[in-house]
Specification:
Blueprint: H1 5-17, H2 20-43, E1 49-53, E2 56-60, H3 69-72, H4 78-89, H5 110-128
Antiparallel strand pairs: 1-2
Amino acid sequence: MQKGYAAGVAKAALEEVLTQEAYVRVEDLATTMAQGLAVCFRKLELSWRAFQLGPRIQLFLSNSLQRNATEAAISLSAEWIDTRRIYLANRGIWDAIASAGPQVSFAHVESDCNEYIRSISELLDRIKT
């Protein structure tokens, strides 16, 4: 690597990509995704919850937020995780955190979030019927 190249890349990332506006945009997209997933869960009469923290959405297989590891184990269904990840992967959607749920990145746009919501809704509808 040429001398000074890494510093130039870091400077460009901080000035052009990792901006305050970009962080706000990503968090807004995550809000849209969490709200869309909540609508999906209600529509299918599932007592699940999509909890958002910044760009991450945690999928809880219950309506309450877990407070400890014992309660969190309720939302760790290997069958749900594997089914969700394979179903999404077969549709070109990468679900980054296997045991949690989606993560919105700087590269995502609104249509990516809508596609995730639509795909999860479709999957859950197929499972439920």
